[in-house]
Amino acid sequence: MTEEGGKNQDMKVMGILDIQNTPCARESILHGAGGSLVAGLVHFLATSRVKRSFDVGVAGFILTTLGSWFYCRYNNAKLRIQQRIIQDSIKNKVIYEGTNLDPTRKKTGDQ
């Protein structure tokens, strides 16, 4: 994050998850924090039980974080696959353009 004495300080959660370089990590943790706040607060307002509301908040954090993480990673993987297909299509278009194998070339009767 900042450079102090030539060392790059990365932002890590609990020392294990580098949220700057891991795709979807920051958004998932922020969604989880919001989900835990909503779940705990709604449970507290409904029951007025502090310890149980805290437990519901922690469960809300875990479920919301994991749900957001998997949803984001799935969409990123789908996007990478689509990009790879488009890149291959562009590469094939460049290779076959102007040849008899060009699928966009109009076929005439004498060919």
From TrEMBL:
Q: Which Pfam families match?
A: Cox20 (PF12597)
GO BP term, example: mitochondrial respiratory chain complex IV assembly
The cellular component terms of Gene Ontology attached to this UniProt record, alphabetical and capped at eight, are: mitochondrial inner membrane
Q: Which UniProt keywords apply?
A: Membrane, Mitochondrion, Mitochondrion inner membrane, Transmembrane, Transmembrane helix
Kindly list the places in or outside the cell where this protein is found, as annotated in its UniProt entry. Mitochondrion inner membrane
Family classification: Belongs to the COX20 family.
- What this protein is called in its record is Cytochrome c oxidase assembly protein COX20, mitochondrial
Q: Record the organism.
A: Cirrhinus molitorella (mud carp)
